Amino acid sequence: MSELEGIYAVWLREAKIYIREKERLISAVISPLLWIFGFGAGVGTTVASVSGFSYQMFIYPGIMVMTVLFTSLFYGIYIIWDRKLDFLKEVLVAPISRASVFAGKMLGGATDAMVQVIYLIIIGLFFLNVPFTPLIIIEAFLMLLLISLAMVSIGLVIGANLTSPEGFSLVINFVMWPMFFFSGALFPKSNLSPWLAALTKFNPMTYGVDAMQGIILGINHYSLLLDTAVLLVFTAMMMGIGIISFRRM
Amino acid sequence: MVIKTEALTKNFGKITAVNEMNLEVEEGEIFGLLGPNGAGKTTLISMLCTILKPTSGRAWVNGFDIVKESGKVRKSIGIVFQQASVDDLLTGRENLELHNLLFEVPKAIRKQRIEEVLSIVNLEKRADDFVNTYSGGMRRRLELARGIMHHPKILFLDEPTLGLDPQTREHIWEYIKELAVKECMTIMLTTHYMEEAEQLCDRVAIIDYGKIVVLDSPDALKNSVAGDVVKIKQKIPDIEKIRKLEYVMKAEEKEGMLYISIKDASKHLQDLLSNTGPIDFVEVRRGSLSDVFLHYTGREIREGEAEGGFWERMMKR
Fold this sequence. Notes:
The structure holds 2 protein chains of 2 kinds. Chain A is mainly α. Chain A has one domain (about 1-245). Helices cover about 80% and strands about 0% of the residues of chain A. Chain A has 11 helices and no strands. Chain A has helices at about 1-20, 20-45, 55-75, 75-85, 85-90, 100-125, 135-160, 165-180, 195-200, 205-215, 225-245. Chain A is globular and about 60 Å long. Chain B is an alpha/beta fold. Chain B folds into 2 domains: about 5-215, P-loop containing nucleotide triphosphate hydrolases (Rossmann fold), CATH 3.40.50.300; about 225-285, Alpha-Beta Plaits. Chain B is about 35% helix and about 25% strand. In chain B, helix 6 links the parallel strand 7 and strand 8 (about 185-190). The longest helix of chain B has 17 residues, at about 165-180. The interface between A and B is medium-sized, with 24 and 26 residues.
């Protein structure tokens, strides 16, 4: 019971701070808008259609994944700030396990990401005419939550092992961009050159994007079961490494 | 014994921050660790609070081993850190509410505890304001309130008044003294302010280079080395003659002034002045912990040095 309350306390702090930092809320809306209406609409004028969808529609599930990916990974930087300012010490000396501290932080990061997902669903529903049904929305939400938990864990692992925010930005860029570019979020996975195809196969994000394209557009490359299984295993691994990193902190 | 250490040691690479320290703190004491920045005070406290693992040696807090029973240690202690660790974007009350959840205060008494500690530190009226509108002293008070809310057996205070103005400092001292009496808490604090150690502590350990140089009550420490200091100006001083007087502990000439340490000015001042002959100037002051520190370490403690202590902070990482 007390561990659950500990997790709740850590999460509550994150959620309250997120709501009060207006900059974070605003940037959460703006960056996905730029991708959909800036990038998607622009490239869409030169690409006729992909798998029977407009380019803008085709990248919509990928942009959802990307938004979750970026927000979740970058969330790890707050751990570094917390440590610099001693905020984290109060939590680290509390009589709750490090696994609970990790869980609270992870849920806090996932909350940030899922608030963005809600924005994106609203945009998709009212401005892009994405074929949403209540079931699709629930499935998409759960899948994105799973992706978010995995990515927040990676961010927290990196954050827990580094001490400077600059170092964090550098490392995270090497993780974030390859994961995004080699995931099939911006291009279809058929007709890829062999080296690119191999890269996408080893990228866990590929399965996230694939699942989302399947759920929303019905054009998945792998089965939804395989996608979910790969992501579950990957998330569990990252959470394990995360808890170990927090124990050493 | 509430706190006990046996040859407790912490190395950071080649630097030994805490060097085979042996220490015993009794229940209900206010115990001070006095030393310059980088002496190892914060490292010692961090080990006792289970934030840092010792390199070697053992220690018990409230009877629990700090390595093997760190969970039980954590439940017995409250901590106020050197740097502010309250959340700016939360209100004072919200900070306390989170602490209640983290430190397992039973649900039924949470509200009451918050009111209790807020009134102890006089923050009732500002409890619902964001912490980023608080002054430095108010933050410190909020942290004190938070540190005692789960009724710990032992309260650790790491430089509780660092960077505060003298008036606020005295207020904080009042709160700390009150706590020790009201809540029957054992308090261990670090400081590099002599005055703070003198005002607050039942016993003081002077720490330098990771070792305890001397440990006793502030009064005993002062009597053992300093006594009273008489400052005299004379045209032709006769130091040798003064040094031969049996109650004179030390006599030195510095910048044209003669500094004479005697055991008790009220008994010996008259006799001393009759032995010195005519003088142009005289001043008598009580010996202070600064004199004690100088005596044992051979150097002055640099009070009011730049915030925080660079080495101590580096070592905590």
